[in-house]
Design goal:
Four copies of one chain form a homotetramer.
Chain A: H1 2-5, H2 10-13, H3 16-19, H4 37-64, H5 72-94, H6 96-99, H7 104-114, H8 123-132, H9 153-164, H10 168-178, E1 183-184, E2 187-188, H11 189-210, H12 215-236, H13 238-246, H14 254-265, H15 270-304, H16 315-325, H17 330-333, H18 350-356
Helix pairs in contact in A: 4-5, 4-8, 5-15, 8-9, 10-14, 11-12, 15-16
């Protein structure tokens, strides 16, 4: 107890002597120094500090999901940690505007010295990608080498081990598969949903048939709905879904997909509200990381242009490719294609409704 | 004079009776109303108001550049108006977060009724694209029809006439061509720059030859510099440049490109400082519009997903294509590839320096 | 059905002919026009559109809380609507940067004509303040007249009626009073909390007594804790609380305050999670409105300076006063002073815990 | 040369081993660790890194102004560095949202241990305040001790020395005093301006006399203008100005104030454009720092509430006081009160106009 009381100065608590002594511009100090190099160093250091924080949060989220049976309390905790991660990502995107105050001419004052050090070598960012679920097979290749070729010793080993471990994607998939609401008593969600979709599409076709339209217009609209029908059939078939997984068109298992669909459709039921917020936060994270890559490409374009036709390696081209390709939770975003309007939504039987509500209000 | 004193109430000054009475949800009012439709209407109305403001600013910028001889005072005015346009764009990007609070399930509550009304039909946004310099040939096609097929009467005519008019791109190109600093007295900028580039690249090759490197490493590096040399040669050749224009690899004329390069390299000279800020603001506008399109794609993805494999038209796919393709000022951004570091920059002769400075300080 | 299919053009759907024809600069059109007046009009129109949206959301939130017994589903809906309102407020704060691109010299070009029209006359904003719960007695007075003196006819009547109606503050207070968890079976929350606080403070005193401190240091620390003790006693006494209400030091009833405290302390229990998010969103709204007023003061300062010593009315001074004074939910923010760390938090008996959980997981 | 080629890895270049090893939560590691303490440490470290960058920029700005005769080129450099500082401040304000994801209950998990370490102890932030020009006499006192009591040794000495040094405020004041345009040949700016103001106010009075107004309304308006007249007279009198300085109502010298006024009024003249941008950037910095303090107060309120009536020291109250009181460049913001509309602005004689323009265009 008595230790707690002994005072800690802010400077020591934050190890500021380490932090504020860690800037060593290659362009030198004094007259020779390139004024702008300090900005380049400091902004990258803040990025790395924030990456550490994001990794801290994602690790804790994965931990909370480890158990077979998740404590309901923890879904709220997870949602607020994901919200924090997304707010950090917003800052990381926004602060690119600071770096963009450095112009290409300024950058040239020290660029030579630091080649080939590049953000591509951020160990923490690679680690984060792997933790989220980016597999080496899915990565866009840069140059001829695998992405981990640039790390050595302990750092390389850590990355390779992470590749073999459970990722956030796996953890989410398993959790979705365990969610027990797809079949309760006599309620079979997939069947109910399937009939609802058919009813909806049939009504749409009826509407078009009786509407005053030109023949060709009517034909086009009916054809579109038929296409939609096929799309839903394919998506609802477990067999077709598994084929799509084999062809790497999709990643999330059939059962997990159905659970995610149920959560999206019945998100207003108390027990599903936080799970819904969690799924949204994962899509949000994917989009924020994509936005960060996208703005990163723009920043590089402002600084270096696009050397069309040069043989030189193009970090910018690499970055551009990863914007879409390195997304992790696209399958969750695509659930939106399966939404049907509330008027067609199958009513839940009262016993199910009760079981999704609070004990108190029962 | 006396009229000025008569009082105007805020409500009348802003025509609020019109503005606040212009929301007519298709889903109806009262019980039937889809709560979220109001948001959908209002956010689109704010977008259109801001588009009007942007068009107001771009029109004034084009006006100020109309004369053969631009009043130097006006470059400052133009820079601050472009800065305003870019701040508006930041707001337009940022406020997408408001729309994203609407989920796909919410959207379905009124989506049926409003089809096919879509943001693609914004007359003002198409007009803005044309004013900036997007030519119909360069546009990404959507469906089988030209983009103006959806407008009629006066609105169609306005768009078609704008296509034939001078655009901001043209105005900037002409202004750059008129800038008189490429050749003053004995100073020939292109020649000087060409020698400086050669000197720089030769020094780099010398450095590599004497460095302790493996043979293969040395070879790679030298090959990279030789590629660079070729790149610079091609860019500096007027003939090659004109070929590139014919092949639509570039748009900006050779002379305008050289002026833009000069402004970028000597931006610290007083007379070039504001022109430099102006060129930067054009690149910034291009990037902001691209960011807006990019975030728009994300918003649609959250709301509708990606219907992989359906035959339905894909507004999202269209949007995605336009992110890069509809950029106007890429040639200005690419000037960055031609920067050389300050130590190689040819010194301006004193008489040129004077002529780029203020009269007072001469 | 067939009507749904008939097409609606974006331009008509959004009443763009009304919206885009509602800008009538007093400085005239053509040569005489003050270029910047358009911005002044358009930004105020977007503010009014967004105020309409905020009022739409707040109305719906109040509606959902009207019933004696709130459907648990609706708390989630309310939270997401409040989140939307707060995102709108962020945009309103951010877009002040656009207006700040107009300088004082620019403003003078049309300012004379529009006097005395001022944002102070926004009927919607006054309405919003009243709806949230700002009572006329609490308002900072401007000039000699009540704030509603500037409205007439229907608009004045609407404001006066709203003053007499239930506000969001009342609705929240009633809802908090109805929350049934302060006394369940043998569990008396206030008593339990009171003992926990005492235990905590006593332990702190013990710690200080045994710590190695100078006598005077020890004395200061013990005195501070004694002050804390008194503070907690006062806050927990219903009698003292009611006195504070009479003296207008606080507004929220004793019972509602205790419920808010319980929600804050046990927010991780499933049934309290969304209520907790809702309370946070109210504090957030208060803060966002305060930030908007604060930034508004800065904007006016940039445009008009502070005429120190002039007799002229000072809109800026008025605004400054309202930043803190017009806050509505300060009592909710002050709950933070009553937090005790998790280690002292009284454990809930299992039957209470169950009753706060989901039926399914029981 | 050969060293330049030897490769530097990103991890070493950024001293990441130091940076990422500098987080030592007092709550411990593993099971005992308070999850949220990491965020608390990391966000403060990013603040300190950014403070280092701001100090780097402000130092360079002061350096560029050191010489008697400022190279015109450098005003552009200074403007872009101030722009960067302001962009950093925007990030610092924005990222408070990350810290606000930590709730008061979370904070209590580790708050005890770190007392009394507080942001108030940031050496760099105090240093920055002093560098900008905040004198100890003007500071709001906290507790009984001067602000530098919390520093020791080298750190204390550095702060005390800075207090005696030139600040950015001094540097700006000197530069404004040196600007040579107040009197050129026969042109006496202050006189010209004085007549223009009188002409303007007289016209306003004439207008009111002939307008259709009630007698009392007319009287009020005329009285307001008379007040304005007195205000201008006082401001334009060097004697009165010096009295105001003695009474600490204003800080900026009379001559510097007149120069700032001239720059504001004739900012469109080429030679004054960048000086105008610079003055604006100083006001902007003041406002950004004030916004940061203001948001900081809100953050503390969310975390700790306002312990009304406790004896404990109130960091929040201190912060609140500094929002306005610690502003440095208020006198520059107040120049706005002296603007007169372009129609009354005295025309510059042609020889003066020439001398404010570019040599080339003469």
């Amino acid at each position: 107890m008595s230790e707690k009381i002994s005072s800690v100065h802010y400077i020591n608590y934050l190890s500021l002597d380490k932090i504020l002594d860690a800037q060593s511009p290659l362009s030198g100090e004094g007259k020779d120094a390139a004024h702008e190099e300090m900005l380049f160093i400091i902004i990258h250091q803040t990025y790395e500090l924030w990456f550490k924080q994001i990794i801290h949060e994602i690790n804790s989220v994965m931990d909370l999901f480890k158990d077979e049976k998740i404590d309901e309390k923890n879904v709220g905790v997870v949602v607020s940690r994901m919200d924090r991660v997304n707010k950090i990502m917003s800052t990381l995107i926004g602060q690119l505007e600071i770096l963009e105050t450095m112009t290409s001419l300024d950058f040239l004052d020290f660029r030579d010295q630091l080649s080939p050090a590049s953000g591509f070598q951020s160990h923490q960012f690679r680690k984060l990608e792997v933790m989220l679920g980016l597999k080496i097979k899915k990565r866009h290749q840069f140059g001829g080498c695998p992405y981990h070729a640039q790390f050595e010793g302990k750092k390389k080993k850590e990355i390779l081990e992470l590749e073999d471990n459970y990722s956030l994607f796996n953890v989410v998939e398993n959790w979705l598969e365990r969610i027990p609401f797809l079949n309760i008593d006599e309620f079979d969600f997939t069947k109910k949903y399937d009939s609802a979709v058919k009813e909806m599409l049939n009504k749409e076709i009826e509407g078009i048939k009786t509407a005053t339209l030109t023949d060709s217009d009517r034909e086009i609209r009916i054809r579109m709905i038929e296409e939609n029908k096929k799309y839903f059939e394919r998506v609802l078939s477990e067999e077709e879904h598994n084929k799509a997984i084999e062809n790497r068109e999709t990643n999330l298992s059939y059962k997990a997909t159905m659970s995610a669909l149920l959560i999206n459709l019945y998100r207003d039921e108390p027990i599903l509200h936080l799970p819904y917020q969690f799924l949204r936060s994962l899509i949000e994270l994917d989009h924020k990381i994509a936005s960060w890559r996208f703005r990163h490409v723009q920043m590089v374009e402002k600084m270096l242009g696009q050397k069309i036709g040069t043989g030189g390696s193009s970090g910018q081209g690499y970055l551009k490719e990863t914007v879409d390709k390195h997304k992790i939770f696209t399958d969750l975003a695509n659930i939106s294609t399966l939404m049907i309007s509330r008027s067609y939504l199958p009513q839940l039987p009262q016993n199910i409704k009760d079981s999704l509500g609070f004990n108190y209000t029962k």
